[in-house]
Amino acid sequence: MSKYPNELELHKKHYEEITDKLKQDAFAQFLGIQLVEVGPGLAIAEMVVTENMLNAHGTTHGGVIFSLADFVFAVACNSYGKTSVGLNANIGFLAGSVKGDILRATAVEEKKNNRTAWYRIKVEANGELISNLDCLAYRKNDYFVPTDDME
């Protein structure tokens, strides 16, 4: 028997509890971010760009784009029910978006072990890639779902 629970099974068994917890992100709610999909090490979310999200040039503020990307990063790295926090994020802005655009962010796990995990995130507007991120998560010892029966 492993000293670590089977995280894929943990994700499946506690899927509703995990997604309900991650949907409670107050800042994501404030921005109007909608969680579209959650899988093991995967998250997709969308948001509509509003007037108050624009910079002085009339395009989506970089902080808004990063916030959407950071949210899917958080969901993906916490998708196994193990408490995880961001260590590093490197973002590139490739194109702009404007009011009314629907931004879609996708986080995909590239590599994980017991202590760290690496994710690639892309943000698109109207099917065009507007931003990409590489993010590193620190995986704490504790789980926010029960693991007693999974060890």
From TrEMBL:
<keyword id="KW-0378">Hydrolase</keyword>
<dbReference type="InterPro" id="IPR003736">
    <property type="entry name" value="PAAI_dom"/>
</dbReference>
<dbReference type="Pfam" id="PF03061">
    <property type="entry name" value="4HBT"/>
</dbReference>
<feature type="domain" description="Thioesterase">
    <location>
        <begin position="57"/>
        <end position="126"/>
    </location>
</feature>
<dbReference type="InterPro" id="IPR052723">
    <property type="entry name" value="Acyl-CoA_thioesterase_PaaI"/>
</dbReference>
<protein>
    <submittedName>
        <fullName>Hotdog fold thioesterase</fullName>
    </submittedName>
</protein>
<dbReference type="InterPro" id="IPR029069">
    <property type="entry name" value="HotDog_dom_sf"/>
</dbReference>
<dbReference type="InterPro" id="IPR006683">
    <property type="entry name" value="Thioestr_dom"/>
</dbReference>
